[in-house]
Write a structure and sequence with these properties.
This protein is mainly alpha-helical and 597 residues long. The chain is built from 25 helices and five strands.
């Protein structure tokens, strides 16, 4: 007897079209469309309101631009450095540039939006295929779609949105016993980012319990899909491992004494459907514990389902990998793990709700639901904004959810003791719904919108008026082939089209070698690399000028200031006024360009 009990007994041939699996589901179209629409709506709202695009996205855009121009898979002309970890996304953007000729950010966001909807849709379909209830299907489909912290990852111009999409699609393909498609999708996942390799391994292991031959075929297809890039990278770059791995280890982790348990806690804090401020550790622990508890409940209930256990095994192994490697400096690395945990937790929440809801007293159940929601929404609306106007937090708006999770079961038990039901409870529920909408509107206005305005300000002042403007200035005022030493590699490198020497070493192996040798002081790189231009924060430049007497100072002796970009009038001597000038944005957007004498 097969150990894979969650798959149907019948099996279509592996060569059949993937669409047959979709057609065979006979899914309720309305719920699926709703899940995708809500997923898209949140991301459209975020990107239209903030316009935020991360600096790192433009590193990939530069590789795509060079590809489209026929200069090869390089960042700097003639320098074969594997400085991007996402070849698939790079090729997609290069294709967009060749076909449309428009901004790579537009193409990237189009891919991201489609991928985000795909992640929600395939998660919904996979849970349906595995026998989940309609509520579990919907919650699982929306778990990442309505996750506020994911909105930025799915609209900032990077490849992150593709990861949960391909993971969910391959999960669904295996649930539908489409082993060939599962292998192809796992191969594409590796093309998107190699650090997701634990997912294809988890799926292949799960498939072994159902059909050993098909599982081996799936694994071989995934390996065959990825092998062309492995061969190309080995020949073209000299190694199939991205150079960014060595660069980030040298820059971020080699001197990091953070313990395994501290790294684990850093990751766990991110595994929540709602952002909770670290300034509220009690609520943070509560929400993280509830999320993991719901995931654990479902994992235990579905322990006979091999594909559900694949999520569990992947989540545990991925958490250990992140903690051991110390790859906790960017939360975008947590997205695959977040998808797995939220998919499990959403199914657990669906089960939890169905157990609590009194089927014989539906009016009382709805009354408890709406009243608890109204109370917690009111709490959120009246919650003080503790972080100040300079850095409002998304987190304060969502503290209410943890309170709701505690209040709802209590009120449900309380109201279940009432004998009277029917129209009074019905009208009370409608009144509570109206209050909920009012209080949530107030909470959103006081907390969410100021936070989004802060992100928008960061995009305008740092991203556009500083980083992008510096790249455009260099394009006009520096000779072709000029070398530039800097840390913010993305915008400046893309818009300037000059040779970049980045402080992290992502596209500069010489910097990585210096860091590996123990030299982490960027000031020393002036002598080692001798760049034509230097870009640094205004206060860093001031610190460099004070290091040595002028006749010995590497900066003053060899360079002169060419241009300052300071859209928020940051004062490097006295610092910024945290109450009036957007706090840290003023410092982050203040740069000086120094040119060689």
């Amino acid at each position: 007897m097969s150990a894979h009990r969650d798959l149907p007994a019948h099996s279509a041939p592996a060569s059949s079209r993937f669409a047959l699996a979709l057609a065979g589901l006979k899914q309720p179209v309305f719920q699926l469309v709703l899940v995708m629409a809500l997923t898209l709506a949140g991301r459209l709202f975020y990107v239209l309101f903030t316009g935020f695009a991360t600096d790192d996205a433009f590193i990939t855009f530069r590789y795509a631009h060079m590809l489209a121009e026929g200069q090869g898979f390089v960042y700097n002309p003639g320098e074969r450095v594997y400085g991007t970890t996402t070849p698939l996304f790079t090729f997609l953007i290069a294709g967009w540039l060749l076909i449309s000729g428009s901004s790579p950010l537009v193409g990237a966001r189009l891919v991201e939006m489609i991928a985000a909807m795909g992640a929600s849709a395939f998660t919904y379909l996979a849970v349906r295929r595995l026998g989940g209830s309609l509520l579990q299907q919907t919650l699982a489909g929306l778990s990442l779609g309505l996750c506020i912290s994911q909105w930025s990852h799915d609209t900032n111009g990077m490849e992150t949105a593709l990861l949960p999409c391909l993971m969910a699609a391959s999960w669904f393909a295996l649930a539908a016993k489409q082993y060939t498609w599962a292998g192809i999708l796992c191969g594409l996942l590796l093309w998107t980012r190699l650090d997701t390799i634990l997912w294809p391994l988890a799926l292949t292991f799960a498939a072994l319990f159902e059909d050993r031959r098909a599982a081996i075929r799936m694994g071989l297809i995934a390996a065959a899909m990825y092998s062309p890039w492995l061969i190309f990278a080995s020949i073209y770059f000299g190694s199939p491992i991205p150079h960014t791995v060595a660069a980030k280890i040298a820059a971020y982790t080699q001197n990091n004494a953070t313990s395994f348990f501290a790294n684990t806690w850093t990751v766990i804090k991110y595994l929540t459907p709602i952002p909770v401020s670290p300034a509220r550790p009690g609520f943070l622990i509560l929400v993280a514990s509830l999320t993991l508890s719901l995931a654990g409940i479902h994992a235990w209930r579905s322990r006979r389902s091999i594909l559900q256990l694949a999520l569990v095994f992947f989540a545990l192994l991925e958490l250990i990998r992140l903690a051991i490697s110390g790859a906790t400096f960017f939360n975008r690395y947590f997205v695959p793990l977040l998808w797995a945990v939220l998919t499990l937790a959403a199914q657990g929440l669906g089960y939890f709700w169905e157990q609590l809801k009194p089927s014989n007293r539906p009016a009382i159940g709805w009354l408890a639901f709406w009243l608890s929601t109204a109370i917690t929404a009111a709490f959120g609306a009246l919650l003080p904004i503790g972080s100040g106007s300079n850095a409002p937090s998304l987190a304060d708006s969502y503290v209410v959810v943890s309170l709701w999770l505690l209040l709802f079961p209590f009120l449900l038990l309380l109201f279940s003791n009432f004998k009277r039901r029917g129209r009074p409870a019905h009208w009370a529920g409608l009144a509570a719904l109206a209050l909920t909408l009012v209080f949530f509107s107030i909470a959103a206005g006081r907390q969410l919108l100021p936070s989004l305005r802060f992100i928008r300000a960061s995009q305008i002042y740092r991203g556009e008026r500083s980083l992008q403007a510096m790249g455009q200035w260099l394009a006009v005022n520096s000779p072709p082939g000029a070398t530039v030493l800097l840390e913010p590699l993305g915008y400046v490198g893309y818009y300037s089209n000059r040779v970049m020497r980045d402080e992290v070493g992502l596209v500069t192996p010489d910097v990585t070698r210096l860091k590996q040798a123990g030299n982490l002081d960027v000031y020393d790189y002036l002598e080692e690399l001798r760049p034509d231009y230097v870009i640094q924060h205004c206060d860093d430049i001031l610190e460099w000028q004070r290091r040595e007497p002028p006749e010995q100072n590497l900066l003053i002796r060899n360079y002169r200031m060419a241009k300052q970009f300071n859209p928020l009038a940051f004062d490097p001597v006295s610092g910024y006024n945290s109450e009036t000038d957007f706090g840290p944005i003023s410092r982050q957007s203040c740069y000086e360009i120094w040119e060689k004498k």
